[in-house]
Amino acid sequence: MSPRPQPLLLALVHTCAGLLAAGSLAATLYGGLEERRVALAFGVLVAVGELARRNDTQVREPAPLGAAGALSYALLGEAGGHPTHHGLAQVLAVVLAASLLGSVPHVARGQGPTLDHLSRRVLTVGFVAVCFQLPYGRGMFDDWSGPAYALLLLALLSLTALCDAVLAAALAHLRTGWPFGPVLRDELRAALGIGTAVIATGAVMALAVAVVGLWALPVFSVPLLLAQMSFRRYAAVRATYRQTIASLARATEVAGCTPAGHARRVAAVSRAVGRDLGLTEPELAVLEYAALMHDIGQLSLVDPVPAGATAALPAAEQRRIALLGAAVVRQTGVDEEVAVIVERQADPYPGQPLAARIVRAVNAYEEKSREGGPGGPLTALEELRLAAAGTYAPEVVESLARVLARSSLTLPVAG
For 395-406, what is the mean pLDDT? Predict the structure, then answer.
């Protein structure tokens, strides 16, 4: 049975985060701010980090500077050699207020942070604050100093990063129904990237502020800002790469070989099926590129295939088109993995890579549903099931059925 979105559990997580945030704000308003200058400095840092956030749902940590500042404030025991007394509730109140303030311009543009992002921020900061502020307030860390104290902060932040990855994967699983294991692997892999920089910066900031005071904040913010800028450039290159592939895929539509939007529809549903079958994020990217370019071999044909429908062609002809397509993909300089999937999409399914099985089944479904009129989607899915024993991988066909059943990824007839 396919995992499905679980809105009640998702709402429960959001409610817990909301209650924790509301309680912290109320307690801070009632008791007043401790060390207001320190609270203001860290609040400004978190707000600036939110202002510089990337509004990209594919990015695991859209505001790394804000996250580092929040974690650093949660781990702060001294400022300029003087003990701090802000405690758990004030940490959450300052971080939440600063995050919301820094998000105002994004909200005005309709690109504000999601509930998942805010819940993660509250629960993650709350976790590290509980692990540090409560024992610190009771004097449990008074004997820790030097390298041992630094290692303590790094250990707490590493544990927090692990918990945050689990929480992010759980939220994605509850919201979408994607398999938890592959999503968690993607989160852990992403945490080794920008997440490592966030952890290191948070620990260094807390240690530096304890010794030299608040002047350490702008100094140690610069490396993370530079890393964030470099990551943005990398993301821009990756986006350009995808746009180039999408433009190449549209060549078959411009030439009249395939209906408008065919490659885009196949790519969208292939990615959803790949996610359902547990492919990781890098594997999903390769699958998407191959799905976009799966019909590019038709550009080499002297006689076009009627309506670009290759699923009904003889196996030898399908194989020839796949080989032609792989040759074109290799000439464009696209990743070899993409060319292999395009090349093997017409092979008998027992010997195909999983990505090639997915592209073949989804392409056939799109073509059959397009030809079948109003009842096309159901008829097409039934045809794939009947042919699964000899042509299409049964596990892929069933995954396609699950994806279509729980989402709006139906494939409309191109107009």
Answer: 86
Q: What is the DSSP letter of 345?
A: T
pLDDT in tens, 58-77: 566 678 888 899 999 999 99
Q: With the CA atoms of 210, 214, 220 and 226 taken in that order, what torsion angle do they form, in degrees rounded to the nearest 10?
A: 150
Widest CA span in the chain: 81
Alpha helix (H) residue ranges in 138-261? 146-176, 180-190, 196-212, 216-249, 251-254
CA-nearest of 268, 290, 246, 276 to 408 is 268
Q: Measuring CA to CA, which residue among 292, 209, 286 is closest to residue 248?
A: 292
What's the whole-model pTM score? Answer: 0.76
Which amino acid, 209? V
pLDDT digits (tens, 9 = 90+) for 158-173: 899 899 889 988 988 8
Residue 391, number of CB atoms within 10 A of its CB: 17
Of 367, 338, 369, 320, give the one whose Cα is nearest residue 249: 338
User: C-alpha distances in angstroms, 399 versus 159, 235, 258, 310?
Assistant: 35, 30, 25, 22
pLDDT tens, 83-111? Answer: 898 989 999 999 999 999 988 888 888 77
In degrees, to the nearest 5, what angle opens at C-alpha 131 toward C-alphas 126 and 132?
100
Distance separating alpha carbons of residues 348 and 37, to the nearest angstrom: 69
- The first and second tokens of residue 382, run together, are 């039934």
Residue 389 pLDDT level (bands cut at 50, 70, 90):
low
- HSE toward the beta carbon, residue 403, CA cutoff 13 A: 27
**Cβ 178 vs Cβ 172: under 8 Å:** yes
